[in-house]
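Structure, all two chains, one model.
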Amino acid sequence: MRINYHICLLLLTATLVHCASSTRTVLEPHSELLTVDSSYGEDSLAEATIAPFRTVMEQEMEVIIGHANKRLVEGSVESLLGNFVTDAILFQSRLNYSGKVHMSVMTNGGLRAPIPKGPVKLSTIYELMPFENLLYILELNGTQTSSLFNLLASNKGVSIANSVVLVEDDKPMKIFIDGEPFSEDHTYVLAVSDYYAQGGGGMEFLKEARILATVDVKIRDMIIEHIRWLEAQGSAADAEIEGRVKLIP
Amino acid sequence: MDRRRFINQGILGSIGLNLIGIPALAGSLSDSDLTILHTNDMHSRIDPFPDDGGKYAGMGGMARRAQLIREIRSRQAQVLLLDAGDIFQGTPYFNLFEGELEFRLMSQMKYDAATLGNHDFDNGIPGLEKQLPHASFPFIISNYDFTNTALNHRFLPYKVFQKGDLSIGVFGLGIALHGLVGEKLYGNTEYLDPVPVAREMVQQLRAMECNLVICLSHLGYRYDHDKISDQKLAKQVDGIDLIIGGHTHTFMQEPEVVVGPHGQVTLINQVGFGGIRLGRIDYRLTRITGKMTPSSATVKVTN
């Protein structure tokens, strides 16, 4: 599919020589948008190069690990995919860490592909969570917990499990964690990937939090395990928009 | 697109110029003297997007892109094929083969150069180093200092490509890695402020009499906040003719024209992600007769 644009520039910086008194030679750009779709055939050399890699990839990745009742996608404020993934991380972290865990978080930037409705292939979870991030268990003091909810309220692209926050004018007005109102004097335990624990995704404040455990389990494998566990229970991978983040108009 | 249509559009373009009271074009010297093809954020999307009802179902695919590029090369003598980073990460091909296939296919397509994106560090400095032998094209990055890493001297700060009679200077800008890439992954790579680096690169490439200066950028198209972006770069630095951008996965319908601090014009283009699109910008040597007017620019959409 092709779309063409012509760009008329009155003065181009790419002026070439030829500057006779009133004649100039310029480089005039013309742009075209090419969409790579089935209207193009496949280059035989590229296809031959890919084929052996694809065979290995498919053998490993085309395994069905569970089912999804509906398409789970990321989105602003609160999303089906964000809720599902943070729930999975929280649930699985409790199997991998003996102490109390209150919450888990994930940013939209960390959710790289949706889970389509129907059978869930292993490859889908690799696309959703391609990173090799490991699980960290952090203890947050009141200030660090506030920072987390401030980010959530202003950014609208952070998902959270086992917490509810009322947001007004991009600020958290009321916070409930594990069913209890948030208190500055309490500490809270967060299950999170090492990427965020090391300050990534705008969570610089997590670098100050006390590390309770670094668990040698990949976040991706936790999601895979969770979907497999759900399937074994006869359940599907699913989530609802349930008002974890409520915007006050 | 057939040649005929291309020429017609050239005429439309000159009408556009006349309409706004600018000298008439004396006519094209040729159809296309330079064809720039570009991608960004391909994210290991070797095969087309799966047919799962998603927005991009069935689109993309590196074998199709290779075919499209082959077709274009058969018609255009002077092609420059560039990528603006984040080649790695996004499908199991990367988890299993660590980028080898991406680099091999790009080498077969005869990419002229790529810059580095943040995800190209996802397997750390050793992970990137390990795959470099599979890339027959250079990586151009001007604002990362790799001196204290295993990748010292493995990349170029700029490169001048000779395409026909044209010299094209290309430099590369990467995004700030802190907070975006795990510190263990980028190690001792030092990020340098892109603005002074870009000014230095433009000066150097202009001194080498480049006809066209291209910046391969993984800074991102634009942000609501202060962070440096392609837009901000173009407004602050004169003398970049074209910024081929990435990182923000922006599907631009047409290149944006930005006027720099001293009135020079920069085009910015970015083509989404995942190899869904291939950007194409043709440059024609065109003779303009008459008085040049003060700088300003307009984009005329002919389709």
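Residues 64-247 of chain A form a domain with the 5'-nucleotidase;  domain 2 fold (CATH 3.90.780.10).
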